[in-house]
Each structure stands twice: as C-alpha cells, then as structure tokens.
C-alpha cells in the first residue's frame, strides 16, 4: 500500500513542477526573444513483483522448498528529469526603430546525433568580460555610443569587440554588416550552436551562457548555415498560448487525479490503524 502512496505523491510533485514551468512560459508570452521551456518527465525504474510460497516435497523427511511466481511489473512513480528551451523561430514584429534588430533563421542543419536543430545568437559581453548569447535584439546606444542589449551587456562584433557608433542613424544589412553612411563600421557577432539544448543554459534576462563557460563558434564560418538580420524588427516569444493553456489544464487534471489516489490510500491507512487494529 505504501508503494502506491509514494507513487501518487511523485506524480503530484511532477505535475506541480510542470504547472510552474507552463505558467512561466505563459507569463513570458510577450517577452522579446523568449524561448519556451519544455519539461522532460521520466519514470523511475519498474519493480518486478513476485509472490513467495512454499511447497512440501513428498519424502520421508517431508522437506519444504520455497518457490516464486512472477506477478508483474510495478511502476514506482515519475520525476522531472530536465527543462530545456525550445529554440524555434518566434514571430517577427515590426518596430521601425534602427536599434531594433532580429535574427531570421533560414537554413540551420539538424544535429545527426540528437535530431535537434541548431540556432544562431547575438554575442554580448558584460562589464567583467563574460560572453553571453541572446535572441533579444532590442538594442540601444549608451552615453558613449556603444550598442548595448536590454540587460546592459555590450553587443559585440565578429571579432568579439564592442560596437561603438556615432549615432542611431545606421543601417544593418542582411549579412549583419553595420553601415554608417556608406562606410562599414562593424559586423554583428553571431554565434552558432548545433545543439543549443546541450551547449547552452539560461542565465536570466533573456541571456544564455555556454556550458563550461566556453564560446560558440562564429555563425558566419559554419558550414551549411544561413540566416539573415532584419533591422526595425524584433523577434517575439515562441510560446504557443493556446497550446500552453491546454497543457496547463492537462497538468491540473493529472495533479487532481493523483491527489484523489493519495486521499484513497490515506483513508485505507486510517481504517487499517483505527478499525482493523481494534479487532
């Protein structure tokens, strides 16, 4: 009985975590460049249940030998294994602001080992020199003319150097080159990950950092990778609100079902202790 008690409790914990994740996705449905998280729920190893009995051997000494009969497998519950962002392209929203830049995925190869598609990111740097990556292209110019991300990080060029401009009257062409007048000032630094779910982790404020603090290779030099930049556009969140609401209701119902199972076990234990024990 106690095995089922813990199995139902583990199901409640997993669905509670799922609900929290879906709620966070829904709250960021209008966040620029946000990538929806996906939860992986796994089952604990099953137990093989056997019944143990005895059998008397027809001999003069009447020996007794034990025997086992397999009853079947028993699930021991579920657990949340990991939460990974879904790096699909969000919808483009026109802002007509020169400092707003979006990345447009065109041809991004699928990783043969994992079956997941790669992704490209803007390269930014904090005040301590740490490299981070983002899809949020809502940039601004600070007091010194440096191009900065919403988090305050400096936007880097293809040589991992800060981009300093004379004014916000610049042009970004499709290949990431920044022009002031007809003069090329810089080229946006774009990193490429062939499996961002494994190579990147969230670092808050729409930023990602490479695992083991490594750097992503340049997307310009990656084979078979093509993308473009759009000035005056921002990439919206890739959260599917209708699907997220449906999944939230499903998680709630699953939590409720496990809760009722738990209550049934609790009533059975109560009877076993307070009623059967009196006999």
UniProtKB/TrEMBL annotation:
Residues 5-35 form the Flagellar basal body rod protein N-terminal domain. One of its GO terms (biological process) is bacterial-type flagellum-dependent swarming motility. GO terms for cellular component: bacterial-type flagellum basal body. It is found in: Bacterial flagellum basal body. Residues 231-274 form the Flagellar basal-body/hook protein C-terminal domain. The keyword GTP-binding does not apply. Keywords: Bacterial flagellum, Cell projection, Cilium, Flagellum. InterPro entries: Flag_bb_rod_N, Flagellar_basal_body_rod_CS, Flagellar_FlgE/F/G, Flg_bb/hook_C_dom, FlgE/F/G-like, LlgE_F_G-like_D1. Residues 117-178 form the Flagellar hook protein FlgE/F/G-like D1 domain. Belongs to the flagella basal body rod proteins family. This is Flagellar hook-basal body complex protein FlhO. It comes from Peribacillus simplex. The lineage of its organism: Bacteria, Bacillati, Bacillota, Bacilli, Bacillales. The gene is flhO.
